[in-house]
Amino acid sequence: MALFDTHRPGLNTLLVLVVVSIALMSLDRIGTRWVGQLDQGMGSVTDGIIETIHQPVVLARSIGRWFIERNELHQDLDRLREENTLLRGQMQQFVSVKREVDELRALLDGEASDVPAVLLARRIGHPPTPDDNLFTIGRGFGDDVRPGDPVIDAHGVVGQVLRSTATGATIIELTSRDHILSVVLGDTGRTTLLRGTGTEQLVAERVPERTQIQAGDLLTTSGIDKAFPRGYPVARITAIETDEAQGFIRVIAEPVADLARIDYVLVVTEAPDADTSPASGSTETLDQPTVAPVQADTQETEAGNGD
Amino acid sequence: MATSWFSIVFTSLVALALVLIPLPEAVQVHNPQWLLLVVIFWSLYRPAQAGLLYAWVAGLMLDVATNGLLGLNALMFTLTAFLVLSLRQRLGVAPLLSQALLVAGFTLIYLMVSLWVEGVATDLVSMATYLSRALSNLAAWPVIYFLLSRIASVAER
Predict the structure, then answer these.
(1) What is the pLDDT of residue B116?
(2) How near does any CA of chain A get to the CA of B151, in Å?
């Protein structure tokens, strides 16, 4: 019977499959479009599985809601109401500042900033990777989530969309070793590249020594990389290492977003300066130092708004 | 003893779900490779239905689910299934404990080779150009075969 059949595996099949796998690996490494489509198509199935195994958690949470004390709920409601009033108050200020900034920007390059379109999404799982820097959200391609879209939380930048499928999307956190983004160093207007290290720290190498920064300064997105709109808070400087022989400093920062306890995130589906043509983009980069004081205002309001 | 395709596909999906369950980081590291174990089981006891192609597809699903390098787990699953299928007659009748030991041995080989492949893949960005030589060898072999067999038969005379 089945045990005594040899079922000797076909060497041809093995070789063909090995060659196909290796070809797939190299094409994936290069980033071919149809491999991306394959990834996206099969990802719809696996993200669906992640969504399904998340359902018990949703169920448990909704059952747990039955057992919350009534006055506890009222306390929460009062707290949220206060917070809402506070935020609305700050928002009024923000609107007037925004109008001012728009006027100034109109004088500079004839282009007003728009408030970005954001999408609230819930984190539903994380794939089992060795360095725990990916997670999956419940919104996907149908909700206009595209690979490369910035992801933020209430405090600052969380990361980017890595892959978007029909049933969900995978987010790469900015602390991942594969992630890098362009930031403005504090109020200096100087930009640098901030690299993830796989730990809780972010590192910017080779910053010129005479840059006027110190521990505690906020790093915000510069917008030069076209991946993130400018002005979002990214990280706070924790340490500065000087290398006297080189004339450069090494800035170590930690993200302002609460990466350890992510439950809900916001996906910026339509960046405010997304539809700038390459030509106006380059003038923007050139204008960077002149715009810096205005931009500092935007940062403060953004930070105030975020908190 | 034809197990239906449905049960094979269903158990594979359940195993994939078990792999993807969010766990605390400390536990996650030690979570068994459920999908690999399911693939080993089916290729051991239902080799007519679950062959190399099944193992390859299962590995590719794992690659997609974990956002890894596409094809890495597919390759490793295929090689493991090949190993299991070749040792099937010895492995199928072995007692449970020695089966478990052999599975652990397969996993060690699996982990070692996948670590190595991952290293090679990150170093060689231009792997496709490197691999094109395999295809040109494939095309060149008939030429060499006919040429050299002709020479060999001429030299014999």
Answers:
(1) 85
(2) 28
Residue A266 inside a domain? The answer is no
pLDDT digits (tens, 9 = 90+) for B11-43: 999 999 888 887 777 787 788 889 999 999 998
Asked if A49 and B17 come within 8 Å (Cβ–Cβ), the reply is: yes
Task: Note down the domain range covering A300.
Answer: 68-112+276-307
* Same domain assignment for residues A246 and A287: no
CB contact residues (below 8 A), chain B span 55-114, against chain A: 56, 60-61, 64-72, 74-75, 78-79, 81-82, 85-86, 88-89, 92-93
pLDDT tens digits for A14-42? 888 888 888 888 788 777 888 888 888 88
| Integer CA distances (angstroms), A180 to A73, A227, A258, in order | 41, 10, 18
CB A288 within 8 A of CB A109: no
Q: Cα–chain-centroid distance for residue A64?
A: 31
- Helix (H), strand (E) at residue A65: helix A33-65
Residue of A nearest to B67 (CA): A127
Residues A47, A75: one domain? no
